[in-house]
Design brief:
- The chain is α+β, with helices and mostly antiparallel strands.
- The chain folds into 2 domains: about 100 residues, no CATH class; about 110 residues, 2-Layer Sandwich (Tetrahydropterin Synthase, Chain A).
- It has 8 helices and 11 strands.
- The strands form 3 sheets. Strands 7, 8, 9, 10 and 11 form a 5-stranded antiparallel beta sheet that branches. Strands 1-5-2 form a 3-stranded antiparallel beta sheet, covered by helices on one side.
Length: about 260
């Protein structure tokens, strides 16, 4: 589905013509009814002509619509795409055409904070501001069901995919990282979004990363495990020196009593 331009008539001229036709139809109707006074019977031909002209004028008024600046009207006839009108102001087309207006203004939204794992597996929180614009109104209407929802969902999906492709901190020279290379990461996100949203007639103008924060998980090692304060406290509570001494003394006393009894 590619956009094609459709010409339209000036709505002011169409409005004036419809009003004149409606007045003319009304005049014919009155003349047909007034003919009864002179001929004794109304002029049916004039009455029918007046009603027909007035009805056509009212139907023609249904073809009027407005197009605001940076807005497009996608026109279809009984489900078939006819064209796109981008002329501003009051316009007129076939009254049987259906019109759907699509804004082509620059819009932006801020994604929520997403919790993902970066390249090294550490959990991070990341968000971005997506600046976008509809450039092909026909694709936005017919290629996707709801282009605004499509942009939001695909933006979050691309942001997740991008965040898992880079580490949070730079470990090697020349390596791109989420925290230290904001412009390069934003360009990658913009290219990813442009590829995902191409079929929806949407152009991504900018995709700056708004925030990125992460936390390093503790690496488990034998030394860290042995020196853990929780483990040390548990060991001291479980085997204090006083309890160990009391246990040994009770064991020796029990042995001597058992030997003497035997």
């Amino acid at each position: 589905m590619k956009e094609k331009s459709l010409s339209s008539l000036n709505g002011l001229g169409a409005l004036a013509g419809s009003l004149v036709a409606a007045l003319a139809g009304g005049a014919l109707f009155v003349a047909g009814v007034a003919a009864k006074a002179s001929t004794g019977s109304p002029n049916v031909l004039l009455i029918l002509a007046g009603l027909l002209i007035a009805a056509l004028a009212l139907v023609a008024l249904a073809g009027l619509y407005t197009v605001q600046p940076n807005q497009a009207a996608v026109v279809s006839l009984f489900g078939k795409y006819v064209g796109t009108v981008k002329d501003n102001g009051l316009r007129w087309n076939n009254p049987f055409f259906s019109k759907r207006r699509v804004s082509q203004r620059v819009r932006n939204f801020e994604s929520g904070k997403l919790k993902v794992n970066e390249l090294d597996g550490s959990p991070i929180e990341i968000a971005a501001v997506i600046v976008w614009q509809v450039v092909d109104a026909s694709e936005a209407v017919y290629n996707v069901d709801d282009y605004e929802s499509f942009v939001h969902i695909q933006s979050e999906s691309a942001l997740r995919a991008m965040a898992t492709s880079y580490p949070y901190d730079q470990h090697e020279d020349g390596q791109l990282a989420l925290r230290s290379h904001a412009s390069e990461i934003s360009q990658h996100l913009k290219n990813e979004l442009a590829e995902r949203l191409a079929d929806a007639g949407v152009q991504v103008i900018d995709a700056p990363r708004r925030c990125c924060s992460g936390s390093r998980p503790m690496r488990s090692s034998p030394h860290a495990r042995a020196s853990s304060p929780v483990r040390s406290a548990w060991s001291r509570w479980r085997w204090p020196s006083c309890r160990k001494t009391a246990w040994c003394s009770w064991t020796r006393s029990a042995r001597r009593t058992w030997s003497a009894t035997c």
